[in-house]
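Quarterly update from the structural biology core.
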Amino acid sequence: MIKNDIALEIEKKSEFNGAKSLLIVETILGALKDALAGKEKVEIRGFGSFKVVAKKTGYGRDIRRKKQIHITQGKRIKFRCGQDLKNISTRP
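Predicted structure, tokenized:
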């Protein structure tokens, strides 16, 4: 499913036209991006939560050159599935 598919679902289930429903999707996703960029935790009840976590520094291996490389510290987004979504995905 892509962003346009979500906008089409909003259009089907509401009175909004295509442009307005796409604007709603982009606004929601923009708010999520801004919150995560500010290192805030985003929680959507029944769906899940997103948070920014620090990635450790360490060493990896360049298998082409057979050398050890240094991996710098960074950030990544971690998603934890909500209970309602977990129950849907585990149904037979």
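The domain at 40-92 is CATH 4.10.520.10 (HU Protein; Chain A).
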